[in-house]
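#onboarding

Welcome to the new folks! Below is a worked example of what a typical request in this channel looks like: someone posts a single protein sequence, and someone else replies with the predicted structure as tokens. Don't worry about understanding the tokens yet, we'll cover that in week two.

Example request:
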Amino acid sequence: MRDELAGFTIGVTTERRRDELATLLRQRGARVVVAPALRIVPLADDTDLREATRACLDRPPDVLLANTGVGMRGWLEAAEGWGLAKPLRGALAGAYVVARGPDTRAAVRAAGLPEQWSPGSESYAEVIAHLRRRGITGQVVAVQLPGGRQPECTLALAAAGARVIEVPVHGWAPPTDPAPLHRLIDLVVGRLVDAVTFTSAPAAEALLRAAGDRCDAVLDAFRAHVLASCVGAVTAEPLLRRGVPVSTPARARLGAVVRALVDELPRRTVTLKAAGHLLTLRGHAAVVDGELRPLAPAPMAVLRALASPPGQVLSRTALLRTLPRGADEHAVEMAVARLRVGLRTPRVVQTVIKRGYRLRVD
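Example response:
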């Protein structure tokens, strides 16, 4: 596999499929920061789930909207514990089953249920439009909830004439260890990560909530420097609502998310010629004449500042503002020295006597 993402740092906020997504990104050469924003937890009280299951047994649904694989498996496991798994499968066997996403389809098939249709975008709007065209007036639609309640979906189905049974299986909770998420927020605010991936709207909301009084700084970073990569339109909605541009693949799949990053991130880089060398800036590295040169955060921050725009002279005071708080002008000199060593082409960074530093652009 080629290293198209070498030199880039990418955050992963999903818990359930973090290993799969992180592996796909690392195979492309990316540095990955795994920081789950949420975790799936079973409901403390299964009363509502029991009532929804009984409702499905009393009046088998005409349509089943399966939202998540973990939710469908959890529902059937709970029914097994109550001795109702076989009757439940029988009640659902005659339903028109809509499965949102490949993992959900796999869970539906494993349960021996028919799978008639899946939305290409995994969006509720596409699901509701499809069911309206099919006709659901007077029908019972069972909606396996994907964590929290989905009032916009329930109300739209009811407006189309359906009787909706909401099936709550699991909920969302903060991560057991919040430290990785706060570390990722630090990286976003410091522009030390190139992209953050989201596979659910609740995860995007959770990251912004965890940012607390730094939420505006996180949003500013996403709007200007850090790419928000979302698996689909539903996932992107909380960020779009806040004016954040997002990257979404044509198909809501993890592999498609990675391919979109491979296409998008290199296009966002700065490339210039300096001191006879071709220089491309990536997230935590520079590519010098085709060779990747990883850099520490401080030298990388200096290089990024000198390249915006390339050729301008920046004083030590100006460069100091790009370094972590508490640094002094000596730290600037150290960062410049480390930058020259890291690039292995010391002439690229020129000292301008009594003024500061600049890139020796051609």
